[in-house]
């Protein structure tokens, strides 16, 4: 321990090495529930690639496990410390190095906050789509580590589709460059994508080349009320089958609608069983919305309310963004699940989740990126009541089991972390797990990088 | 050898095991020049996953190297046989298993021809974008193996972006399932992408889940004549910087334009130094074309000719598609390069290529996916003249060196294969090569799968 601090300080300024136990303890966890965490022995906050390399060389020399961290807004425990580990926080590496409108790329350090990058590229008429709900806090490095998504994925895809190239410090301190900064490139195995979603378990991302899109027109939204989840999901099916390209297609179940009203006085219709929000950022958004509104009515919507203005649209989206805090306000604690199923199975997923909630006598509100089939059931409970906590955990797992049964995945955009580690093996199967472990061994033969996460 | 055939026939019908040397010799190469090839000991043509597994188990048992093949239209020698190998042709596994407009996916076997899939999904109002110029012959398995692109990539990206999940037979015959059939999914390391572009060196793809797009409106094109490559490339810069989303942005240099006229009597303007083709498949294609036409004029175009109809557009695109055959008609042989540079460096790439041609006294025509910075210099030469062949090879390599110097990659969409194997190490560097070799070792510890390719 004394050795570790002494060696670290040889390559890091004093203020970049935190050892005060009260301070280091505050770096122990991300936002996931039900995940074990230990006390870090030390927290380091490097500002340069060379400092990160020094950190990893030191870790390798002394065989100290390293837990890379961004803003710790993750929801799967991937950033949780292990006992005696070194926390490697990348938040001080927060420079936007380059924004290029001709190449449509940004080059950034991992600690850049998602919203900061989004606003910076907007000034150049560009758009960085991935928009996880924590976008005002979360970092690009964390987004890459967890493979995060957001509301816009139904049109623009997830973080992975925007990562063109990386610089990565390996476990032994060597620097690896992957990918490219050109529009295309297929030279060799795709190491870039291997790092996306790897939760810092293969290396430490210290720089990223990100693809950008031209800024689209401002989006226009509508809300549609449905008498059942089945009719709302039928609308989703029809919208997608008809070839529409909404930039947002979200579903809030009754529990979520009521919670949002309770928290935000939003005046959403409480009689609805499912509220669908659709938005378009196309040149003909009003016409697209009208067409989608008709499909909603055909599918059984009792009311369709298109926003007349960007301001009205923003209000609808605000209601959606309030879903998670609103559900969190219902009970002392929540666990948010992240199951993604084929669009055609969405109704079964929602109804099955409601049945699980009822069976366990729990409140589970669901908001869903319906256009992607990606549901976020939020299990509300009181951790002070061990029996209720047990039921919460049980239903959380039954929801994942249901997702797998319906041909889905245990995680659409939050990652595996600690929370779903045992479930990964169930989804991927033994052959895949063996290959994944083999890859881990190639990059991190001593097993020092974020041990116990993902695999 | 006797053992091999006997064992293969235990799990394959007689007609699926070809041993006639005249027949097996015809499977020795793909379309690349300058690449060594050996005689296969046997060619197998399985029709089922179980048959592929039997093939790989047999190969592992007897330690016989296996070269997977599709339509052998590849341009890097990735499908070339090695002496005494077993060629594993996937062309008989050509079923389209599923097309689902709600999920926007197709599930296919590897031997499905690209054009067959494209037409099949079009009947459902869907679109499979990747369109390599060999699309009427090449197979989806080959597209995945080489990571192929095409004309549409400037808007729609390359094959990699359409592969959601795979079934892969590993070297030892085990079946690996990767990825998903949902819109999103981040469970574990991204093994799917590892196989895209791996040229059959990590496993044999036997099934793929592909993402589809809604069919766009029919495209409308324009042609613009430029007095220099510099002005044409300046137009490309402006078009991309202004946020336009053409579905095609192609450049033909003077040599190519003249060759196309000579072959096809197309009546293209021979006085031009560079011809730019742009197309839009947007709802407002005419307005988009007009805006792009203006940018071309501003950048120095001497003439801008927008097509008035889909038929006229098709004629322009036909000229572009004729580029390669037209250049091939100039001399007994050609080598086609595939260097992708940042868009902003395209003019330097083109002018540098012209200088290389001049220095070596060779004809090198360039057609380029200009919107992606992806150039295809076609080196024309007579292989019967060893001195000319030597100069051709030299210039081919100088073109790659120039691409790397300009911050580009040695291959935008054709792959590494045999042809660029030594160049991969130059582009990727020793750390990346070590990691890539480590990954190869995880999937194929005996080194039986397409030995000598990629790495």
From TrEMBL, chains A, B:
- Listed InterPro entries: FAD-bd_oxidored_4_C, FAD-bd_PCMH, FAD-bd_PCMH-like_sf, FAD-bd_PCMH_sub2, FAD-linked_Oxase-like_C, FAD-linked_OxidoTrans_Type4, Oxid_FAD_bind_N, Vanillyl_alc_oxidase_C-sub2
**Designated name of the protein:** FAD-linked oxidase C-terminal domain-containing protein
The coiled-coil segments of this chain are none
Tell me the lineage of the source organism: Bacteria, Bacillati, Actinomycetota, Actinomycetes, Kitasatosporales
Identify which cofactors the protein needs according to its UniProt entry. FAD
Q: Name one Pfam family in it.
A: FAD_binding_4
Q: Which domain of life is it from?
A: Bacteria
Specify the FAD-binding PCMH-type domain's residue ranges: 36-215
Matches recorded under SUPFAM superfamilies: FAD-binding/transporter-associated domain-like (SSF56176), FAD-linked oxidases, C-terminal domain (SSF55103)
């Amino acid at each position: 321990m004394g050795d570790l601090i002494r060696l670290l300080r040889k390559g890091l300024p004093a203020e970049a090495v935190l050892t005060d136990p009260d301070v280091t303890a505050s770096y122990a966890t991300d936002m996931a529930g039900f995940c074990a965490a230990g006390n870090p022995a030390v927290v380091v906050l490097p500002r340069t690639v060379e400092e990160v390399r020094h950190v990893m060389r030191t870790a390798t020399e002394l065989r100290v496990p390293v837990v890379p961290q961004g803003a710790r807004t993750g929801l799967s425990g991937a950033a949780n410390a292990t006992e005696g580990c070194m926390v490697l926080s990348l938040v001080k590496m927060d420079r936007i190095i380059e924004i290029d409108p001709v190449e449509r790329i940004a080059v950034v350090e991992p600690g850049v906050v998602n919203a900061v990058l989004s606003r910076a590229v907007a000034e150049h008429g560009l758009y960085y789509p991935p928009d996880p709900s924590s976008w005002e806090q979360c970092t690009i490095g964390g987004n890459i580590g967890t493979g995060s998504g957001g509301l816009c994925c139904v049109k623009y895809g997830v973080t992975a589709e925007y990562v063109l190239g990386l610089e990565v410090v390996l476990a032994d301190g060597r620097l690896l460059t992957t990918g490219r900064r050109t529009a295309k490139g297929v030279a060799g195995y795709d190491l870039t994508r291997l790092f996306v979603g790897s939760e810092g378990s293969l290396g430490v991302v210290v720089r990223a080349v990100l693809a950008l899109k031209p800024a689209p027109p401002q989006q226009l939204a509508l809300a549609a009320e449905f008498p059942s989840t089945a009719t709302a999901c039928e609308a989703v099916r029809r919208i997608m089958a008809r070839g529409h390209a909404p930039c947002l297609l979200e579903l809030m179940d009754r529990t979520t609608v009521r919670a949002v009203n309770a928290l935000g006085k939003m005046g959403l219709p409480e009689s609805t069983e499912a509220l669908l929000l659709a938005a378009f950022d196309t040149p003909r958004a009003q016409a697209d919305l009208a067409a989608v509104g008709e499909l909603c009515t055909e599918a059984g919507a009792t009311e369709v309310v298109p926003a007349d203005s960007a301001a009205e649209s923003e209000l609808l989206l605000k209601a959606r963004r309030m879903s998670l805090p609103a559900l969190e306000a219902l009970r002392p604690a929540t666990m948010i699940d992240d199951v993604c199923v084929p669009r055609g199975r969405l109704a079964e997923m929602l109804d099955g989740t409601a049945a699980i909630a009822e069976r366990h006598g729990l409140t589970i509100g669901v908001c869903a990126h319906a256009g992607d089939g990606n549901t976020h059931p939020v299990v509300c409970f009181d951790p002070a009541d061990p029996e209720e906590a047990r039921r919460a955990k049980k239903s959380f797992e039954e929801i994942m089991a249901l997702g797998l049964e319906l041909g889905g995945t245990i995680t659409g955009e939050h990652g595996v972390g600690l929370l779903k580690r045992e479930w990964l093996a169930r989804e991927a199967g033994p052959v895949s797990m063996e290959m994944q472990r083999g890859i881990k061994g190639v990059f991190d033969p001593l097993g020092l990088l974020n041990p116990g996460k993902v695999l």
